[in-house]
Design goal:
The protein is an alpha+beta fold. It has helices spanning 9-19, 54-62, 66-74, 92-98, 106-115, 146-158, 176-180, 222-233, 237-253, and strands at 2-3, 25-39, 136-141, 162-167, 185-191, 258-259, 263-270, 273-274, 294-295. β3, α6 (146-158) and β4 (162-167) form a beta-alpha-beta unit.
Length: 299
């Protein structure tokens, strides 16, 4: 048996193809994290103010091909993501029913951009505002997520946005101030779970905390602040469950920070190894049920 990070989706694809007919082994996949688009809401130097317009954020989400990204990166080992919740979470079906989903729709993206004052010339090209200025959008990323960010930036170019990449130099990868001062959007990564939800005012990244807060783009909504506090402090389990559903619904309604992919982890095991399940959000590590594992025969 071998599991992530020793093996990833591309290696698992080879095993799936080779084991598919023979039954020699099996593959299990799961997700406890998600890369996401983090919008900039703070008035930083050179800030693209259009990011404060919900119609613009909705348009960019409609212009993002989630299915294409998922197929290119995860190779069919995970579903398309729409909210910060693992598919293995017991609350997933309830959350999935109520959240706002932004289907890949170029016409809807164009209509929303036009409503916000960004229109494409009749002959094509970049969208511009009333002053004739193009919609310049710099997407920050790290080298480890550059391939994902490139796909997103290309999607946005198709919608007429003048999107470019800024790859954070390795020497500045731990510069918290730089990580907070992106001008429009940033590709980031986050583990899933109640305590990993950081889009509240308590998590603002500021000079006072030496830019150490995790809410880099300063997203804020008082209802989400309230709901997240309930998730963390209520002694009533049903209230915590309702707050979880509501906070994820609200975040998608506002087109806030948005996941675009599940971070897939996998187990590859021979068919005679019985018991491995997955690294679940509420469990620590992949071997949480190792007392139930069994080798049913010698090799």
């Amino acid at each position: 048996m071998v599991n992530s990070p020793g093996v990833r989706a591309r290696e698992a694809l080879i095993a799936r193809d080779q084991w598919g007919a023979s039954g020699e082994g099996y593959i299990k996949s799961w997700s406890t994290g998600a890369p996401y688009i983090d919008w900039q809401f703070r008035d930083v130097p050179n800030w693209q103010r259009a990011m404060g317009d919900i119609r613009v954020r909705q348009a960019l989400l409609h212009a993002t091909d989630l299915e294409g990204i998922n197929e290119a990166i995860n190779l069919g080992f995970s579903p398309v993501v729409h909210a910060f919740i693992s598919p293995e979470d017991p609350l997933f079906p309830e959350v999935d029913r109520v959240i706002t989903k932004y289907a890949y729709d170029g016409n809807r993206a164009a209509a929303l951009l036009a409503e916000a004052g960004w229109r494409r010339p009749s002959g094509g090209g970049l969208v511009t505002n009333a002053a004739g200025q193009p919609f310049d959008l710099e997407l920050f990323t790290t080298a480890s997520q550059q391939s994902q960010a490139t796909i997103i930036a290309d999607n946005w170019k198709t919608a007429g946005v003048n999107s470019t990449l800024f790859v954070v130099p390795q020497a500045q990868a731990r510069d918290d101030e730089l990580a907070t001062h992106y001008t429009a959007a940033r590709v980031n990564n986050r583990q899933l779970g109640v305590e990993q939800f950081i889009w509240t005012s308590r998590e603002f990244s500021t000079p006072e905390n030496r830019w150490s807060g995790s809410n880099r783009g300063s997203f804020f909504d008082p209802e989400i602040d309230h709901l997240q506090n309930l998730r963390l402090t209520s002694l009533d389990e049903s209230e915590r469950r309702r707050a979880t559903v509501s906070v994820l619904r609200r975040l998608t309604e506002l087109a806030g920070p948005t996941p675009f992919l599940y971070a897939v982890e996998v187990i590859l095991a021979r068919s005679y190894v019985v018991g491995p399940v997955a690294k679940l959000p509420e469990q620590g590590g992949m071997t949480w049920n190792i007392h139930e594992w069994e080798v049913t025969r010698s090799r």
